[in-house]
Amino acid sequence: MARDLLPYAVLFTLLLIAIHVSYMAFRSREAELKQALRKTQIALQDAERALEEAAAYHAREIRRVKSSSVGVGEVEASSVKFRAAKLAFARLFHPDTVDGAASEREIRTAIFRQYWEELERIDRRY
């Protein structure tokens, strides 16, 4: 009778081995998925932290720009005004527009150059 049960015992043992292998494969796949999920969660937390830092940085920059004494429109307006003043100065005091003696022309040329160099320096600086 034991010999009659031997094929069933072998079959049952093979079935148990197959179940165990399937279970181990499932646990291995489950562990891989848990590890991948954890990596994704960490990456998401890092991205959220970076987003918060970027938002805080830009909020600080907005406050800094708003609190500065000169706005963007004012800078452009003052630049236009400065160029208009520079053009008016050149039109009024350029040595080529002087009618008069050579000595007067030399004096005006020297003065004009000094002022013009200063205006150019201011223009480059700002």
Proportion of residues in β-strands: under 5%
How many domains in all?
Answer: 2
Distance between the termini: 107 Å
Number of helices: 3
The largest sheet, given as strand count, sense and whether it forms a barrel, is: none
Question: Averaged pLDDT, please?
Answer: 83
Structural class: mainly alpha
Overall morphology = rod-shaped
Rg calc: 43 Å
Assembly type: single chain
Q: How much helix is in the residues?
A: over 70%
Low-confidence stretches: none
* Quantity of strands, as a count: 0
Order of helices and strands: HHH
Keywords, separated by commas or semicolons:
126 residues; 3 helices; single chain; 2 domains; 89% helix
How would you characterize the overall build of this protein?
There is one protein chain. With 126 residues, this protein is mainly alpha-helical. The chain has two domains: 1-68; 70-126, no CATH class. Helix content is 89%, strand content 0%. It contains three helices and no strands. The protein has helices at residues 2-67, 72-93, 102-125. The longest helix is centred in the N-terminal third of the chain and has 66 residues, at 2-67. The mean pLDDT is 83.
Detail the topology: elements first, then pairings.
Elements: H1 2-67, H2 72-93, H3 102-125
Helix pairs in contact: 2-3
